[in-house]
Amino acid sequence: MGLDKLFDFSNYYLSPFAVPYLFSSTYCFILAFFVLWKKKRQGLSLFLTSFFIGMYMLEYFFQYMSKTPEAAYLWIRIDYLAAVPFISISSYFFALDVTKRIYRKKERIVLYLGYLVMVGFVLVNVFSGLIAQYPPYQYFWGYYVHVGPLHHLFFAFWVGFGVKSILNLIIAYRQEKNALEKNKLRIYLLSYSFGYFAVIDYLAAYGIGVYPVGYVFVTVFLTLNIYNFIRYKALGVETVIHKTAGWLAVTSLIIIPIGAVLYFSGNAYNQLNILQKTLFISALFYLFLYYYKFVQPHIDHFFQRRKYDFEKELQNMSKRFSVILDMKELTHKIAENLYRILYLEKMFILLKPRESESDYQLDLLNQRGLKDFSPAEYKRVIQYIIDHKIVLEKDVVNADPQYRDIKGDYLKFSRETAVDMTVPLMLEGKVIGILGIGKRENLRPYKRQDIRFLQDFGLQIGVTLNNALHHEDVLERQRLAYDMRIGKDIQSHLFPKKTPQIKGYKIFGYNEAAMEVGGDYYDYVEKGNKVGIAVGDVSGKGVGAGLVMAMVKSALYFAAREATNTKEVIKTLNNLLYVSMEGEKFMTFLYCEIEENKNEVYFSGAGHEDILVYRSEKQEVEALSTGGLILGVDKELDKYLKSESMVSLFSGDKMVLYTDGLKEAKNKEEDFFGMERLTELLKEQGKKGGEEMGKGIIAGIKAFSGERSQFDDMTLVIVEKE
Question: How many other CB atoms sit within 10 Å of the CB of residue 195?
């Protein structure tokens, strides 16, 4: 039989046993050419695998429909020239690709040698019948290859590459640490394990009359790989065509059992009576109905072809979301449900968390490839949506003249964020958020009913989002209050537990923070017959200031004991703050030292308040400048510091150290207490003992402030000379 007769239709007949091979072949070719078109070089291994399997299936389709052994043998020879030898080696190539072992030199050498060996077998087949002999076997389903003496060697190579592929997948699976990649490799391993069961076809090649069902295993092999593309974007192939092809293939599986029942029960059906035939047809009908109602929806959803009852879904989502108060869980559920219903590729939600905040914040960024962006860059677009409260579609904005004012900005926003539509999220007629969605994964356009669903969704979800936001605020305030209480408790242990006793002096200390955790600080350092007294004020308030205070306290004990004068203490603390805080926090500081039974008090300051000295003999207040630059601003603090200063105290004199919270206390008219009032208060209270004087000063300041809350931390230390 010559090649001219190969396409003579009189040499063929329609065999039902050939039909599955035609379907499988079409399936393979669609996948192969789509991958080649979509990924070119990166998809080459999968293209070759699918293409050669498709050729194998197509040639066997014609082989099974051949009327004569000559026609069947010619198709067998073509199959062994153009398809069969290259299936296994191409599958090996694909396995190297997905395990990334293709980059190993030894594996590439094996791959190239494999193709050369298979080309050698092709040449042998061209010039001899040593691989496929004439005449072919004839079975009830049609003609099948009759293997020659070299086919055993060819088969050994063919199976060897299959085993090597599976071993590579096992090694890669065991070595992989990433859970996602491990899942991909698990599915590839399963697909190859199924795929190589196709060798069952070779039973017929060796004279065993079993209908070749290898196409089933090959279809499973390709279908599992398609699952990897759909579920994990394997090889970076994002497809619509292969999803459609997969949907058609899986959906058509119902035809196989029903067709098999009809085919094999043909003679028996004719012998049934009317009642039996009715029951038989009814059983088939209910089988199909069950499939249509319970199986097909799952297949449709997996391949992103299911249509939902939007009204019912809105009701279900409203019920499910209304009990979720955790914002992270809520936004995750929103993304999950919208993806399930509309098959969204990308989405985000912008929220305006509080009435006091004008800027929208990016609250959720879906994991499906959307790049991060700053809402501040698109203020015009956001404001337009807030003002107009409408859904904006990229294509409509681009085409409709009514959007000309926002067109340029919106198209830029759409291009840079990969978003095709924005939906306002509403609460009581106000926009509290914006939902942005990209293309659908099945690439189908958004229809009017989709947009209506999104509009209704935006109206319904606003209440739920608002509830979650307020719940988040309450929880945040509770967490903050708890943290502040803990901080206050810790800080209270940092202040002196007792006042040091030193001959010739009495000391009184007081601190009250404006917040739970303050930035004011005072402390004592006992050094034999001397006592060091420190007073400081950290910039700002709250936890940050409290942490700086704790750090300074720890360093002060070391610095005071090692230093020979008060100026060295200041320099040591400055170096610590400058290096540790990197310009983020600063501190005014004053350090004094008194010695028992001595009148002299030595001191050095770093931008702190003046020392006030009440002179008992004259009943006047004297102000002493502490000088210097606040700690943490400049590494070279020495150039700003004065030499160590000294003041003499006599019996009844009182030295007052304080922070600016005393003079900056406010009353309800927003007047400051001020230095003048503080000086007069010291004169008024100066005749009292040190402790009573201190309590009188605090009482006077609080009487001035009245019911107004404390404006700043207040710290007061009084040193009384006996």
Answer: 26
